[in-house]
Amino acid sequence: MSCPVQHGTVTLDPYVKDLRAEREILHAAGPVTRVELPGGVTAWAVTRHEAARAALTDPRLVKDVAHWDDFQQGRIPEAWPLLSTIPPTPTNLLGTDGAEHRRLRLLTAKAFSARRVERLRPRVRELTVGLLDALEAGAHEPLDLKNEFAFKLPMSVIGELYGVEEAEHGYLRDMYVKFFSAVTSPREFMETYATLERYYDGMIEAKRAEPGDDLTTELLNAGEDGDALSDLEVRGTLQVVVAAGHETTVNLLCNAVRALLAHPEQFDLVKEGRVGWDAVVEETLRFDPPTSNMVFRFATEDVELGGRTIRKGEALMTSYGAISRDRDEHGEEPHPDTFDLTRERGHHISFGYGPHVCPGSHLARMEGQIALPLLFERFPDLRLAVADEELENHPSIVVNSLKELPVLLRPQG
Ligand code: HEM
Q1: Is 413 within a domain?
Q2: 303-305 and 315-318 strand pairing
Q3: How many domains, in total, are found in the chain?
Q4: Is 25 within a domain?
Q5: CA of 109 relative to ligand 1 center, distance in Å
Q6: Residue 238 belongs to some domain of the structure
Q7: CATH at residue 162
Q8: By the 8 A CB rule, do 67 and 86 touch?
Q9: Exposed site from 22, 50, 159, 335, fewest CB < 10 Å?
Q10: How many Å apart are CA 288 and CA 271, to the nearest integer?
């Protein structure tokens, strides 16, 4: 079994060999359970809706790593892979709480507003069509749809949101890969980080000199009565958009394509116009959430949650994969482990809940609802180039990413 339970602790598989089974085991372990993460680090996981909603709105569970005893007392290995997800000095939306976080949310609200995002709609369409055109030449051979399509669109859309030229979208993507996937040493990490900082500082300077109709300019102009975002905070917000908004959206697109191809009877409902693409996006977010486990919140005092006590100084993660299997929220029939576009009961919380709920959800939904129908209109016979069971997960307990999504776009010659 990929994910053994010993003395009430669930050991998460760093290679993510069987995500489906892992979600069920976490779900069965109760609303809040002990988990062992790669490197022998232990934490709590919240795995059901009700307990997750309580945790995500509890002001005693905070993002600041200063409250994590294991970290402060040197019990976390220096090269622990998940350390890069925990900012040492939290100055951005994801890493702050309370009044500091409320201030940042308020000052950035307009930049993320549905109105601003809606203005991008025609460009998202154009960018999608451009990527599909580029796929035509290799349409008769197997290709990796993740790399050639799903990985490209979200970063291009973020580039548009930032207000940078299309020619720079590839640079942003390369930096992302370097920063999140290809870093081999702490020194390389710091160098890449410094390069990115310089890039963002240059962007801020350029937008200050020549404002545009974009998120960067909106952030620079945010606030009144003497309270504005500092350049550091603008940079932090731009960085967090990539960290929180790129790979998650890549996963949404890949997971939706995979789910539709694996469930032709459900896909028929879409083709026959009996359900919309919005249902495809929402059921994918529930069935196969882009983030498996969101790390971490730390207890500033003892917290009772789901019948367990999270002691002051302990860490808790939000297990969106397991939460999506919650029978209390989604019922037994259809079983939460089935992809069902006509599902009526329950609402997923794959965009989070409470003060940190995702401000990019409108954009992510819009991308899914534009890109997926355009992809299948262009390539109606699109199919997997391997069996579904052969698809492998990227070895991460945080992101729910496929390593590759090999497809044939035009299988019939
Ligand atoms: C399907 C795609 C996406 C998913 C599943 C997703 C999921 C999430 C989740 C679960 C959180 C809450 C984290 C927490 O509680 O600590 C979050 C926060 C955030 N997301 Fe998204 N996200 C997606 C796309 C995006 C996009 C496209 C953007 C930006 C354009 C974005 C920007 C952010 C930001 C800035 C935060 C931090 C908010 C805060 O902490 O106050 N996300 N996202």
Answers
A1: no
A2: unpaired
A3: 1
A4: yes
A5: 13
A6: yes
A7: 1.10.630.10
A8: no
A9: 335
A10: 21
